[in-house]
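In response to reviewer comment 3 from the previous cycle, which asked for concrete evidence that the modeling workflow produces usable outputs, we include below a single protein chain processed end to end. The sequence was submitted unchanged, and the resulting structure tokens are shown without manual editing.
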Amino acid sequence: MVELLRNSLAVIVTSSGFTCQYHSCRPSGGYRIHGGRFPRCLCYNLSAKTSKKHLKRDGPNMISLRENGRSQFEDLLFGSEGRDIPRIVSNLVACVQSGLVCEEDEENVLIQRRKKEFDPSYFEQKFPPVGSSEIHKKPDIGHVGAAEPLTISTGISSVLEDKVHFLEERDEQILSKRVLMLSRTNKVRSVLELYRSMEISGLRLSFHACNSLLACLLRNEMLDDALKLFESMKANESTTGHSYSLVLQAIGNIQGCDSALKMFSKLQVECKVKKDFDVIVYNTMISICGKENNWGQTEKIWRSMKEYGLVGTTITYCLLISIFVCCGQNELAIDAYSEMISNGLKPGEDAMQAIIGACTKEGKWNLALNVFQRMLNIGLKPNIVACNALINSLGKSGQVKLAFRVYDVMESLGCTPDAYTWNALLGALNRANQHADALHLFENIREQGSQVNLHLYNTALMSCQKLGLWDRSLQLLWQMEASGLSVSSASYNLVIGACEVARKPQIALQVYDHMVQQQCAPDTFTHLSLIRSCIWGSLWAEVEEILNRVETDVSLYNAAIHGMCLRGKIESAKKLYTRMRKSGLKPDGKTRALMLQNLPKDSIRQSYKWPRRY
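The workflow returned the following structure tokens.
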């Protein structure tokens, strides 16, 4: 590092524990050696004038200062052993921070004077040859008015070159505060130099400062340096639970969940680490596993935490509930919620709504209703998703009154019912065989101006089918087509089913023809309902036509044979049964029983006659 000043020369030699500086800007010039570990301070005066010096370039960034085959540092600093001079350790580096070519005459006088005062043999025996010391040239340093001490390159950073400074301040608390300030402002180079200087000086950072420095390195994506610092903290027993959380979170974000789990398992084995493993560390690992929906490892970490006698926090159980619900592990989510309540913790709004959804999926409407009531008691407002899930669960369980009570509460909370709400209420009424009430509710929904979708129409058609309201079902079908909805085969099946219940086979056939014209493919349920309608209407030719039109289906043949036998068409049933067996179809048990009842006794005996033994 070389800087040229107009009237000043500063030479600094830095090694472990002391700094040697030369300032030509002083009236008399001179060298001053500061010993960080020694109480002495040696000064050497030097009068310098502009003269010829030999500057040797050893590399692109390194130069050496020599004269007559000897280093001037060796001549100036190591001239005699007559004085008690602190010893300089190996790897001594001389740094010129700013300089000016001295005059040759005055320099020679000074050199001769120093040679008389010091014997260089002492230093040549005790120390490595300083003549090979290199002077670092730093071209990017601007012109300054006074020389600033520079330091050698040592430290933990592989990206930034941290350096060692002599620390006049020895108070660890004050230095820790400085590290905190530098870390928070992301001054990475400065904070690393200060940390390394404290480490060499035998000073320790506070736990808070160590964690702040660790977080600073991780924020700046210096994972390797952060891991080196982390190992140093473990060796000095300066780690806390926050330290492990920071490192594990960084490993999980950069290298993935598997790497974080391996490191976590390795740290769990260490005895010294167990005392620092608090619940926050486990929360961190649960969060890492949750990001990848790894519910299996999440459960293991949860069980491991309990084995070590740690009690989870609210955050712990909220994470567990969220992860288990997202992964479809509703039983585990309910277990985590129950443990949370037993530990006296108060779940949050999101956790309680997630538990309502988990309980409804498992059919535990009692627990879901209890959580819903608990939310209302503590002033929380369940969202519409939780309300819809609870209404649907109550409707499936036949609790129609409770389902409408939840609906009333939802309206009082200001939630606007949507299609899922109406479908859940209509489904609850249909399951309770209150089909007329379901149709009445459907009409109210339409009058309120709510948007009616395909599911609501199908639910209303289901009520019409149960009641045999074929005309009402036809009206709903035309309304669906007029509104532009894509009518599915399920909708046509419900209308044909209503005609079947009402004994309207001709209307059912017309709906079937309209269905084909609309290019809606009939399925097995369509043909089954149509065959039953034709049988009850004694439309035997239409039954034969349907069986000939569609692909061979055993369920259709069974239904036709059952209907013919019940209607007394035994001969037609026998013919159809024979045709069925020739086609390779296997009749069901009811079909075989009906055929056995109507076959002649001789035929039955012949079919069950034992074969002769030869």
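The radius of gyration is 46 Å. We consider this sufficient to address the reviewer's concern, and the full set will be provided in the supplementary archive.
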